Amino acid sequence: MDVKKNIERLQDNIEKRYVLQHAMTVLSYDAETVMPAGGGERFGETMGALAEMQYGLLVNDEFRSLMKELLEQKKDLPIHLQREVEELHRTLKQIEVIPVEEYSAFESAQAHAGVAWRKAKDGNDWEMFRPHLEKLLEYAVRFKRYYDAKAPIYDLMLDDYEHGLNAEMLDGFFATLREELVPLIHEIAEKPQPDVSFLQKDYPAHIQEKLARWLMEVMTLDPEYCSLGQTEHPFTTSVSNKDVRITTHYYTEAPLSSVFSVIHEGGHALYMMHTADELNGLSLAEGASCSIHESMSRFMENIIGRSEAFTAFLLPKLQELFPEQMQGVDAKQLWLACNRAEPSLIRVEADELTYPLHIMVRYELEKRMVSGELAVSDLPEEWNRLYKEYLGVDVPDDSHGVLQDMHWSDASFGYFPTYALGSAYSAQILAAMEKDLDVWGLVGRGEFRPLVEWLTEKLYRFGGVKTASQLIQDICGEPFDPHYYTDYLKAKYRKVYGL
Amino acid sequence: MDVKKNIERLQDNIEKRYVLQHAMTVLSYDAETVMPAGGGERFGETMGALAEMQYGLLVNDEFRSLMKELLEQKKDLPIHLQREVEELHRTLKQIEVIPVEEYSAFESAQAHAGVAWRKAKDGNDWEMFRPHLEKLLEYAVRFKRYYDAKAPIYDLMLDDYEHGLNAEMLDGFFATLREELVPLIHEIAEKPQPDVSFLQKDYPAHIQEKLARWLMEVMTLDPEYCSLGQTEHPFTTSVSNKDVRITTHYYTEAPLSSVFSVIHEGGHALYMMHTADELNGLSLAEGASCSIHESMSRFMENIIGRSEAFTAFLLPKLQELFPEQMQGVDAKQLWLACNRAEPSLIRVEADELTYPLHIMVRYELEKRMVSGELAVSDLPEEWNRLYKEYLGVDVPDDSHGVLQDMHWSDASFGYFPTYALGSAYSAQILAAMEKDLDVWGLVGRGEFRPLVEWLTEKLYRFGGVKTASQLIQDICGEPFDPHYYTDYLKAKYRKVYGL
Fold first, then answer.
1. Do A198 and A296 belong together in one domain?
2. A276 min Cα distance to partner chain B (Å)
3. pTM confidence score
4. B204 contacts chain A (CB < 8 A)
5. A 207-236 → B contacts, CB under 8 A
6. Which residues of chain B have pLDDT under 70?
């Protein structure tokens, strides 16, 4: 068939899948934010059925032959459809080897595991979650094995989140981090900690919400296109570049938690809101890779949000909203409090410097679980052992240990390393941005628009049209180099702790 | 095919449609509560596509022949499937005459109209909404005409919300109300109004939310199965009897608004939560009729919630949560404030006595619009004229006039009368309940469980298995009689105003 007809057929298929994806995105968001627990079982059934419908739209002879023709006609497609066809082809290859009943059962199992994980975490009940995790892991491994009988399973999983990533590269990356950062962490352990007593007061949730909405405004997150919700674990999701949702959690005695989660999720949201219109409904709308997504959230959260310039800009607003709690606090104190580094238990509350250690624990455990070296039932013990070894902390219970993150309940094995990689990308991207913009002058005045425009021009708008490594090369003029990250952390924390 | 096989085919079809209905229910809930306005367009597309899929599952030869066989095998079906088959057959007859493109376009148009209505209401911009209403009205009339070339269109619409209802019956019903209630309303206009100054203070929204959650607990609305959200217009929706959602709105200077909207929506929610398990996913799970649904919500809101017994039970909680604002208020004062009757502009804020007049305005206008006697463009003027005539109030702008309700933006023509009818049913049901239970003793102690159990036994559990008239007959031992309602209102308001 001629290329014009084939593009129409492709777009028709994309639209049909977009409808299902839209429903699944909103159902999932709803399950995290609104759905009463009693709805969990039905939610699982419906998600399974919708996934089966999605599967049916890809895995059929007509679509296979369309893919074949489009791959031959690739050079005549617009660039974004060239890339989309590549991605679809790849997805098709991965899922057509999975029997449809297993595909649908996996989707239901994921939905049920999510509900079980929340209950298990709330009730500190690892045994409630364990069978779900075993089931998901079994599915995830089996699905990869269907696709590729030989390659290391964990590499196949990593590749889902960032094309080309593998354990060998990550071993090298984490070795660099360990080498450069662990001595610094030890040095800091000898120094007195910044005073954070002004944070341990009562910061009412409804005033924190006002602050969150102000932060969104500062970040140029227009409520016309981005909503703010509340969940135990903050996250971002999107239906299109005009319908993005972020969530946060308000702890009355830890106001910075919500501040930095809003800035973090806001960083994801900006990416999604400034992806080109033509990518709506395509898989490319999800972004270049999970690491690039995390680079954008952690750029905003850590590099911008925890900078001296931004915390000085934030202070008067904090003092306006919380006059009693913030009385007498100066800019230096606030900046130091935002950058206190201390090994701790909870990843999402960890500081920028010790954060990669939390990732290393998970990386280590995932790699061994997936390869079958570590049984799921031994996971809590190993978790606790590695937290002691890497971070020097004792895990008091599984809610504060192995049950703390939702990722494994979502079968997102291989996702965690993207957090550390994203942080490293963000430092390299900062160096490029500083060549073009007076970053700290702008941030100090709360002027985010030029930063957002720069990122839109260089990165946001492309979504997945460019790969992660292409983006880094094009933006920075060189390949990825983790030393930007370690240099940035060392310089910053030497200043924070007066080393 | 044998009946067992046919039941399996039916259940398979029901499950497939349930998946789509589940998605559409949650997407609609999301659109009202969370979705940024920018998502409106895509929401409309997706709803249209899902509706088209639903249509395809009913309107096809295989389903038609299944219906034909099941109607012949009806006596061998369990009672709930007998009724479901009747309802499905009826739905099939109504929609198979509509071309699928029109069916889908109508669903999209509805979704878009809802978004436009919210904007129009916020911006007091009737002209923004008018073309949407014209389009919906045209579709709604055309669809009924496809189905029945002769019957009065408005009767066909009324029949959708309550089988057997027609304009002649409603004319008689409203005439009774007018005759019995208007003289009382005039008498009251001469009397001094209760003091409500204690309500015109600052009642912070986050404390009102605590009150709302306490009210849900009192009403036995278990958060495991029923969530609470916030919207401009309160409503209730459900996915199953284990996943029900109510919403409310907190006005800081009108705390009773949220109190009674929670009790009202809570009344709907109890009905949905106590519908028999076997009805999940069936059309029968929606309830016996809209009037019966409204009877359950208005029973809780007005008959129970605004009673002397309940307001006396409520007072200490109000004083605990709002000690300054409620200082010195006694039970009599609170009861009177909850029952102040005065013609006003906004239906949802109207008192129990003048409420039916708001419905009469809408009934009158709908009847004329649908029959083509009244052009949509003349609607605001006629609205304002009738508010002056029936309620004696001047409408200052369309936001407080013709744009106040969402119903027409949803093409729910014929729905409004069910509110008045539901109120009337609830008074007759109270009379039956009083024969079995010490209603006011229980309510005065906040013991709702026996009431809920009585309603479950007599009404909730049946869903749509019994029709509205069957329910009234079975519960009350006699057919519907509007004088229970007018007698109840007259006795109550004579006491409130010392007549």
1. yes
2. 15
3. 0.91
4. yes
5. 223-227, 229
6. none
